[in-house]
Amino acid sequence: MTKAYERLLECYRCFQEKIDFKPKVALILGSGLGDYADSIQIEATLDYHDIEGFPVSTVSGHKGRFVFGYVKDVPVVIMQGRVHYYEGYSMEDVVLPTRLMKMMGAEILFLTNAAGGVNFDFHAGDFMMITDQIASFVPSPLIGPNIDELGERFCDMSEIYDRDLCQLLRQTARELEIPLQEGTYIQLTGPNFESPHEVRMCRILGADAVGMSTACEAVAANHMGMKICGISCISNLACGMTDQPLSHEEVKETADRVAPLFKKLITEAVVRMGEPLSF
Ligand code: HPA
Q1: Active site residue 149
Q2: Which of 62, 79, 85, 185 is catalytic?
Q3: 34 contacts 82 by C-beta, under 8 angstroms
């Protein structure tokens, strides 16, 4: 058994001792979007600090806990705050919570983040459904001995974002009359925002939004066979696309502004994820 898997099992045992709950959907909340967790029917919470060996986030605006509860009848586990590669954690640490949520029983991973818009058609405050990703600028979380218990060594990445879940999000947004952009997300390491030419590079590579998370978690989840979907909140246009310098405050302000719509979209989408997919 690999060290990484042993550690994961330890965290899982710690969870089992404290919480009796089997989620169907795992939701990771991005910068400024964490308040969503407070709006569900909460059954239990578990601070990351209380899980032995668990990586703990240091970014302001990120709470560090799992929230267990129901969105209508659908059992969910929510990560209120994630850990980022730029904080100095290894990729193994960064994806440990994602792996743990799969072990808890989650079949679906719903990723959210705040991201910079790279596509000139986007505006601050837009939502973008992630249809594919570029993770090549960060190390793969699958580097190192393969965890055979989780998945295979050379895993396929041809449909990271599940087609049926994408269709579900599309349809939900349409019915709620919430505009939903679609595109490719690129993960860079951060923590600095990109330079104008790095943003140009992202665009040339085919990215529509840029951020500092998510893609690595999707790789780890795909390795384990989870069904994945994701939404980026375009908190700003990326560097060089406007005259204004970027700030984390701007990211949080936009996220706050769109929070009510985000809540509506996420809630309805999760409810539908509780039903058998009908596509
Ligand atoms: N770049 C990278 N990450 C981000 C951005 C950005 O412009 N906005 C929010 N997260």
Answers
A1: no
A2: 62
A3: no
Task: Give me the tens of pLDDT residue by residue for the chain, a chain 279 residues long.
Answer: 899 999 999 999 999 999 999 999 999 998 888 888 988 999 999 999 899 888 876 655 456 899 999 999 999 999 998 889 999 999 999 999 999 999 999 999 999 999 999 999 999 999 999 999 999 999 999 999 999 999 999 999 999 999 999 999 999 999 999 999 999 999 999 999 999 999 999 999 999 999 999 999 999 999 999 999 999 999 999 999 998 888 888 888 888 899 999 999 999 999 999 987 655
Q: Report the distance separating Cα 49 and Cα 64, nearest Å.
A: 8
The answer to whether 119 is a known catalytic residue is no
**3-18 vs 91-104: helix axis angle to the nearest 10?**
50
Give, using CA atoms, the residue closest to atom 5 of ligand 1: 116
CB 80 within 8 A of CB 26: no
Distance between CA atoms of residues 43 and 78, nearest Å: 12
- Going from the Cα of 239 to the center of ligand 1, the distance in angstroms, rounded, reads 9
86 is catalytic: yes
Q: Which of 90, 248, 250, 253 is catalytic?
A: 248
Global pTM exceeds 0.90: yes
